[in-house]
Amino acid sequence: MKEDQDPLTAFVSRSLRAVVDEVRSEVIARDERRELERIRFRRDGSAESLILKRVPTDDALETQLLPFIARKTDRVPAVRSRGIPPAAARAWPWVLHEDVVDLQSACEEDPREIVRAKAAIERAVAGDVPALRALGVPTLTPAELVARVAERPGADGADIAAARTAALALEALPVVLAHGDLACANTRLTERGVVLIEWRAAHLGRGILDVARLASDLRARGDKTAERLYPLYAELTGSPAGADLIRAAEMVDALVRGGAKR
User: Fold this and answer.
1) Contact 177, 121 (CB under 8 A)
2) Sequential DSSP letters for 4-59
3) Cβ(74)–Cβ(195) under 8 Å?
4) Could you give the CA distance from residue 237 to residue 176 in angstroms, rounded to a whole number?
5) What would be the CATH architecture of the domain defined by 7-98?
6) Angle at Cα 214 formed by Cα 188 and Cα 251, nearest 5°?
7) What is the pLDDT of residues 156-201, one digit of tens each?
8) Which CATH superfamily, name and number, covers 106-257?
9) Do residues 84 and 224 make contact, with C-beta atoms less than 8 angstroms apart?
10) What whole-number distance in Å separates Cα of residue 213 and Cα of residue 219?
11) pTM, rounded to two decimals
């Protein structure tokens, strides 16, 4: 690395362990909960880009979790580096990862590939529950998800009671790494296949709730393939997905999303 490199060029060079030039950046999204900055550069004469994502310290699970998952599977954006500021610093934690922001949602092709990607991630980290907990991934049972909604002002008592019963039916299912918001907007279709983004709501929970979230989103888009997701998930993971469990999962998901009970 040259001593006279500007800080951004030096940062990208260190992250990639490569010589880069023509480095420039632009903020493409910014609000009180995140900032996305696209960094463009040239390496070996070819144009490339990466995304620098910053999030508040109290919402920084993804900056810890994403690098870990990326080492286990290619079903998430490839991570180049991350940074956790010192306790006394006011800077936000960040992660530098593959630029997939402008790629199309995987729902535009075959949504079943999203389920395959999710199942692959579950398998990749199945033996890493202690490590996931150490990274700060919380354990959230279906009953706890319902309880969170029950605490909100104006929560409907009848819906809460029905969802609590539904949550109990899901308790016997295997505990896996759940995405927590597996909607079409959080999937991308890349050259290597489907990748899942936005892991800020990840938790150790029941994977069928991810399928329920995706199925609901597909129905809202008028996609008739939603019902085919559950048997595929059951086939890939060995987790039961009978009619009663599907109804229970969709009831819990609808409540958590603030939607109407089916």
Assistant:
1) yes
2) T--HHHHHHHHHHTS--EEEEEEEEEEETTEEEEEEEEEETTEEEEEEEEE--GGG
3) yes
4) 10
5) 2-Layer Sandwich (3.30)
6) 160
7) 777 899 999 999 999 999 999 999 999 999 999 999 999 999 999 9
8) Aminoglycoside phosphotransferase (APH), C-terminal lobe (3.90.1200.10)
9) no
10) 10
11) 0.92
pLDDT of residue 85: 80
**Residues facing residue 187 across a β-bridge:** 196
State the pLDDT confidence band at 261, using cuts at 50, 70 and 90: very low
**Which ranges in 48-182 belong to alpha helices (H)?**
61-72, 112-124, 129-134, 142-150, 157-170
Buried b (16+ CB within 10 A) or exposed e, 186-196: bbbbbeeebbb
Q: What residue spans in the chain does CATH classification 3.90.1200.10 cover?
A: 106-257
Residue 27 has pLDDT above 70, yes or no: yes
